[in-house]
Amino acid sequence: MKPGKTGITRIIHACHYSWLGLKAAWKHEAAFRQELLLAIVLLPLSFIVGQSASQIALMILSVFLVLLIELINSALEAVVDRFGGEHHQLSGRAKDIGSAAVAVAILNLLLVWGVILVSNYF
């Protein structure tokens, strides 16, 4: 076990580092800013569109999944950029796969919201 903070001190520091990560994503990642602004619209809308707790939960989870995958993709891109400015096939592949993960999360959001909208209103 590596030495370090434990208990509540560890939790406080972890929250601080998470906040710094969110601030960095907001400052440096346009896609994260766009997706967060979309989340600010979609999260309250889920309570209007959803007709059950299950539907609302699915809609909210699909929104958070996009944000989560975007954060992971942004971290991956930062690491790739940090360790190699020159073009490398594996670096490009890593970035493309991260981007594909974001696309799949967005498709999931569209599918979840689409199915719920169609089943509730059409």
Automatic annotation (TrEMBL):
Membrane topology category:
Multi-pass membrane protein
Provide the residue positions that the database annotates as binding a divalent metal cation.
29, 77
Q: Which cofactor does it need?
A: Mg(2+)
PROSITE patterns cross-referenced by the UniProt entry: DAGK_PROKAR (PS01069)
Name the source's superkingdom. Bacteria
Q: Does the keyword Metal-binding apply?
A: yes
Which GO molecular function annotation, any one, does this entry have?
metal ion binding
Gene3D superfamilies xref list: 1.10.287.3610
What is a single cellular component term in the Gene Ontology annotation? Answer: plasma membrane
Q: Which InterPro entries does the record cross-reference, listed alphabetically?
A: DAGK (IPR000829), DAGK_prok (IPR033718), DAGK_sf (IPR036945)
Give the E.C. number(s). 2.7.1.107
Cofactor, free-text remark: Mn(2+), Zn(2+), Cd(2+) and Co(2+) support activity to lesser extents.
The record's keywords, sorted A to Z, are: ATP-binding, Cell inner membrane, Cell membrane, Kinase, Lipid biosynthesis, Lipid metabolism, Magnesium, Membrane, Metal-binding, Nucleotide-binding, Phospholipid biosynthesis, Phospholipid metabolism, Transferase, Transmembrane, Transmembrane helix
Q: Report the PANTHER family cross-referenced here.
A: DIACYLGLYCEROL KINASE (PTHR34299:SF1)
Family listed: Belongs to the bacterial diacylglycerol kinase family.
Indicate what this protein is called per its UniProt record: Diacylglycerol kinase
Source organism (scientific name): Kangiella geojedonensis
